[in-house]
Structures are given as structure tokens and as C-alpha cells.
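step 4 of 6: structure.
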Amino acid sequence: MNVFVTGMGALTSLGLSCEATFQALLEGRSGVRAYSEWAEYNGLHSRLGAPVADYDVMKIPRQVRRSMSRMSEMGALATFQALAQADLTPGANLNSPRTLLIMGSTSGSPCTFETYFKKLFEKHGPEGQLSTSFFKVMNHSVAANVAAAIGYDGALLAPSSACATSTQALILGWEMIRAGLYDVVIAGGADELHYTSTAVFDIVQAASRGYNDRPDQASRPFDEKRDGLVVSEGAGVLILESEAHMNARGARPLARIAGGTYQCDGAHMTQSSSETMMGVIREALKRGGLSAKDVDYVNAHATSTVHGDAEEAKAIAGVFGDDVPVSSLKGHLGHSLAACGAIEAIVSIQMMRDSVLVPTRNLERVADDCKGPRLIQANTPVQAKTVLSNNFAFGGINTSLLLSSPN
Amino acid sequence: MTPTADVIDQVNNLMRSGFEIPGEKLVPTATLAGDLGLDSLDAVDMLVYIEETLGVKLEGERLATVKTLQDVYLLAAESVHHSKANA
């Protein structure tokens, strides 16, 4: 059974819609800015982030919004966009018993965790806590809040695997529709920027420290002068639909989910390996009935870390050689953690639709340990029919997703 | 006890800022649930806002008796009075 994408929505550090984000990517813009105020946090060396610009929260009714942190707000707004493009409305033409909502985040809201515990310690107890605080920090906060925002009452799952979260959601959605369990899946992820998220990477020396005074140059996947990632935020949501359901209502496909898989390496929390990355790429191809020769572009996870980029470059070259164009979007967007997989899938679809590949921003000189794959450094006209998008997460969670043009 | 204009102003302000209720709806006879659209979660948060704004302590059990905005003004006024008496 074929599974198609019929709607997409995104809020990113480069725009409040899929279209605005893609245009900014084509223009080579950076979403990264300096957070000099983070100097007050002892032990935090990386003072960079890629925030989403102000958005209109009033589009979300107060009674729903009151239990939302920033990540849920962005998740809801991205879902509004995706449902609008797909022309689906819960309660009207979206049949909840045959629909699944899968949306996750790395954790509950880090911004709310900070205010909650700050007050808890000050008051030596829960005195003065708002009733809605917990609904912002529970692990399924984004999924539950998005469901409330769109008036959805069907099946709901909230996967959480850090940077692989939304790719897992997409692949799981593909599997569920293929299994015949659902006609429509609303899949995605969201995360919000907070200094503690940057600190997670800073502590293990995986966050950029050397570009605090040059933020737009900080995230530089595969480059010889890369020194770590920049945490971003945002939300990405895609509507997946069975071919039969899509055809029955005359909807227009944007892309087809052509394969994918998620595996763990069961070895190390942070040290990903090219062997297990190659394993997940090959398994994704196998599950899609495809070979490496069928892939026209690889959207790398490459976050600009010294170790991860080198391992992924080795893995991609190991599967695809030096023939297939490869780039990472983290140089422009930063790393939006649970949102990045869905956002990168959306941009990959836009690249296929517009027949142009976005290069890796700040990739000026390919590092010796990243040589092997064909790393593109400029907008590249290519009529890609099938693309592979990687996302890898702490905990050794590896994902590869295959997307094809619908025809 | 008659609520002072200051207490009424402060309660109305937190109703506007905390719950986005338009000023014209803030009349003493307005019911919290029906006219102002506040539910049980909002009621809990309303007490927190009143405590923070007026610097008083409120008993959560009193919520059961609070039905209208006038009841909120009275509760807030009583709390301010008790707070001053105990100071």
C-alpha cells in the first residue's frame, strides 16, 4: 500500500512556514544568533542558538494555549498549516477512528521545568504552582496539546527519541498505514530552545564554542573548522495518507514515503558509528525495495560535531560512494532536536518539487575526515526523484527515511 | 465587607492579563464559569494570581463558594483584611 504526504507545516529558525523556510534556505541565510546573556550560566561555553521568530499565539484559543509551552504552540501552528494544505479538518472530513496522531519532543518543556523548579525550591514546596504547569512538562505534552488545539479525539502516540523523534514518528506512521490500521497519520515533532538543551551538548563538548562572536558561521557540518552544533527550535508536521484515502477524496500528493527504518546500536550513548549508520541506511533501502542507485540526494543529519559528521560521511560514502549529492541543513537552521527530522523531510520534499538541492551552509573546506561522499557547496539543480534523510540521536538511535516524488 | 476600588482594580487586571477576558465582561454579576468561561483549572490559577498580586494567602477550599466576580472581589478583600489583621 502506498503512503503519500498530502500536507506539511513548519516553524523554523528561518521562517514561520514551509515556504518562508525554503526561500531562506535557497538564499543561504542563517538562523543562528548569539546569546551573550548566557555568560551568566557557570560552565556553559556555547552561547549560540537559533530561535524561531515571534509568531501569533492568538491563533490558538486561550483555553488550549494555557497548557502549552513554546514547543506545543509551535507544534499546533505547524499542524494547522499541514491540515490546511491537506484540506483535512478533524470532526469534518478527518475520521478520528481511522487517524493516528504521532508527535513528540525530546522532553517536556525545558523552559517550564526551569520556572517550575525555581519556584519549587524557593517555596520549599508546590505552593504557588499554576495548575497547568505539569501539562507543559509531561512527556506527551506536544501531542496532547496539539490534539486539543485541533479538536482531535483519535489514537495518539508520543515517541521521544531526542533528535530522531520526528523521523521515528514519520516512519511509524508509514508502517501503521501500510499495515492497514489507519488511513491518515498526523506526524511530527517539536522542541523549544533553552540554555539547558545547549548545555547537554556543551557538557560532552559537542556544542560550538569557538564562534560565539560569529554566530552565522558557527554551525558548519563537514567543514574542517567545525567545532560543534548549535541548538535550534521549531516544529515540523506532515500529513501521511493512504493512496486509497487520498484518491477517494481527490487530494493532491506532495510526495510518497518510499521506505525507512529506525534502529538502535545498543552500544554507546553518544559515540555513533559509521557501521551502524550504514546498517540503518541499507535496511531503509531494503524495506523500500530500493537500491543505493535509486537515491538522487541524501539529506544528512550532520549537526557539525567533530565525531558525528565524520562517521556519517563515512557511512554515506560507504553506501552511495561519491556519486550522490549530499548536504546538511544544520548550517542554516541549527539543530532543532525532535523537530529536525520532520523539518528536513519537508525541505527534502520541497527540493524534489523545485528541482534544486540546498547545499550545506558554512561548508567552505571539506574536512579530511569527511571526505568521501559528494558534498555539495552551492544550490544545485537536480531533478531528484528519491531522497534519503538521516537522523541520529543520543542513545544510539539511528533513522533513515526515504521520500519519493509522487509520480 | 465591601471590596475597595483598589482590590477590584487588581482583580480585574489579573482577569484581563491572566485569562484574556475583555474589560467589558468584568462586571460583579458575571459568573466565572458561564459568563467568563473559566473552568476548574482556571479557578486554581486565579487563586495563585490573587495571592501573588495581593500578597495574601487564600484557602483553596473557599473556591467552592466562589461563583461570581463579586465573590472573587469579596474573597480578595477578606484576605487582604485578614492579612493586615495578622500583620
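step 5 of 6: annotate
 - The first helix of chain B runs from residue 5 to 19.
 - Helices of chain B lie at 5-19, 40-54, 69-86.
step 6 of 6: archive
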